[in-house]
Structure formats: C-alpha cells, structure tokens
Amino acid sequence: MRIFWALIALLILLAAAAMFFTSSKPPRIAPPNTPATTPTPPTAPAPAPTADSAPQAVAPTAPTPAPAPTTPTTPTSTPADLAAAADAEQAILDSIAAKHSGPQHAAKTTKPSITDGKEKPTVATDKTAAATTPTTPPTRAPAKIGEYTVTGATFRNRDDGALVVDEKYIIRGEGTQAKPYVVSWEMLVASEGDFDPSKGKNTIPERVAMLHDKVVTITGYIAFPLMTPKPTELLMMLNQWDGCCMGVPPTPYDAIEVKINKPVSGDARFAINGTVRGTFKVEPYVTKTPTVSWLNGLYLMENAEFAAADIGAGAGS
Predict the structure, then answer these.
(1) Which residue has the higher pLDDT, 91 or 253?
(2) Regarding beta strands 271-288 and 215-223, do their DSSP bridges make them parallel or antiparallel, or are they unpaired?
(3) Is 106 helix (H, G, I), strand (E, B) or coil?
(4) What residues contact 232, with CB distance under 8 A and at least 6 apart?
(5) Per-residue pLDDT averaged across 119-124, rounded?
C-alpha cells in the first residue's frame, strides 16, 4: 500500500515538473517589429544554426485601418439658406396673425404654409362664430343680495323666444308687467343646492337672483291667513297645505309670501289653488345663532294680482 501511494506522489511531482518547464519555455515567435530575414547570396556560407537563428514564425501584422467615413456628397443647407427659410416662415405666420386680428375676420383659405418641405394650405376658421356662446341674461342680476354673493349662470335663447337657464330650466316672458316671467317651481326649489346657511352654503344662484325686482307669474296651491274675512296676503306653495294639520308644510324654497294689491273677498277666499302675478323679491330671512344659521324665508312677491282657480267646499257660506 505504501508503495502505491509513493508511486502516486512521484507521478504528481513529475507532472508538476513537466508543467513548470513547459510554461517557462519562451515562445519562438519573433517580435512584431523584427524585419523579415533577407536571403543571403548563394555564394555566401550559411551561418551555423543557433537557437536564435532557427526558422521563425511570421509576425502578425497590424490590420490596415479602414478609411475614414467621408462626408455625404448630397447638398447641404448653408446658414444663408436656413436664415432665408426662417424669414419666409416668419412672414407667413405674421400674415396669418394679421388676417385673424384684422377687421376681415372671416373663414377663408390663407397663404400656404411650409411644413416638412411641402406646401400645405392652412384654413383659418372662425372658432368664435362656430362655438355656442351662452348669451347674457336679458336683465342683469345684482352681484350681491344683502350680504350674500350671487353666483353666475348660463343663458341661451331658443328659437321660440324662451330662455334656457343653466341648460335645464325654461323661463318665458320678459319680466315686465305686460310680459311677466313665467317660472317653474323646479327652478325655485333647486336653489337649495346652492343656498343653505345651515350648511355653510351662502351663495345665491343667478337663475333666481335675476328674478329680483322683476314681474313674475306662477301657479300653485295657496293658503290664506286663518280667521281673516278679507285677506291681503297669502302663501303660494308647491304642495297643498291647509295652514295647520293637513298636507305638506312648506319650506323656504317651495313657498312665496305674497302681498296682494287688493283684498280677496267672496268665494275667492276659499280657493285651494290659483295664480299670482307681481314683483318678485329674493330676500333671505336668516336667523343666526352663535353655532348655526337658519333660513326661514327666501321668496316674496309684492303688489300682486290673484286669480283663484279651484274653489273649496266652503264657497258660498
């Protein structure tokens, strides 16, 4: 067994020695810069062969560098050409701007503009004429009502003469005695979303502010003061209410306190509903406390005319 391991160790030593001598032997390749050996004349004696004069491998030559890329021969723009093109483009832009800002602002084809080397016609369109611009209200609403700011609205006239407010509500008439505004309860009630002091909403929408001090007509349920033989005021409401226990009690948004220009008498005192026409007022009646504010009333009407529609069962008594 010892002989076996001795042989293994001897083989390892021999292999190591062989690798050492092999790696330490210098290469026989001549340096790259050594010139090639010139053949000697036949008459000259040949030198004795030595280790250094043994046939040498041909030294690798450096690759021939590729020729530098040449500049394309296609014509290029000179600074003068670029400046001329820039001046031409600026002149076109100035011409277009002058046409848009001048008095002849009509839709027509202007001079062609240069884009990517190709001429493309530029059409000037009158965007102001094409766009639908909301018209101003026929009567300007006040900027503020009392201490409350009025927010804006959009107005558009229809072909039939009606006014479309905020693209939702329809108003007819002109707000005069001869042509009063005809408004809907829907528009009056919708102001709750904008004006509610108890919730910190303190802006009045222009769609109702524009009715302030204008003549308005509206139809609805009515309630007279109790025990008054010839009332001079009434409550115009969206919902029916008897003033006590029957019906739906009104809110500041669906009721109008109306002052009539002459006392109501006869069977008209028992009317359940009817129509009023008078000067409309937007006057918030707010009760303020240190912690909260409450809206008690919002709409009034003065110098109103009343026309009864449905007479109740008490008529004739």
Answers:
(1) 253
(2) antiparallel
(3) coil
(4) 259, 260, 262, 263, 264
(5) 43
- Please state the rounded mean pLDDT for residues 81-109: 58
CB-CB contact of 173 with 182 (8 Å) = yes
Taking every pair of C-alpha atoms in the chain, what is the biggest distance, in angstroms? Answer: 166
Q: Are strands 233-237 and 255-260 parallel, antiparallel or unpaired?
A: antiparallel
Residue 160 banded pLDDT, cuts 50, 70, 90: very high
Whether residue 141 contacts residue 152, with contact meaning beta carbons closer than 8 Å, is answered with: no
* Residue 270 φ/ψ, nearest 5 degrees: -105, 15
Residue 153: name the closest of 240, 139, 229 by CA.
139
Three-class secondary structure of residue 69 per DSSP: coil
What is the end-to-end Cα distance of the chain in Å, rounded? Answer: 145
Q: Which residue has the tokens 């303020």?
A: 288
Give strand pairing partners of 163.
157, 171
Q: What is the mean pLDDT of residues 215-238?
A: 94
**Arch. (CATH architecture) of 144-311:** Beta Barrel (2.40)
Torsion (CA) 268, 270, 272, 273 in degrees, nearest 10: 10
**Helix count and strand count (H, E) for the chain:** 5, 17
14 in helix, strand or coil?
helix
pLDDT above 90 (res 177): yes
Give domain limits for the chain. Answer: 144-311
At residue 97, the pLDDT reads 57
Chain center to CA of 154: 18
Q: Which of 18-27, 40-49, 215-224 has the highest mean pLDDT?
A: 215-224
The token pair at 62 is 């450096």
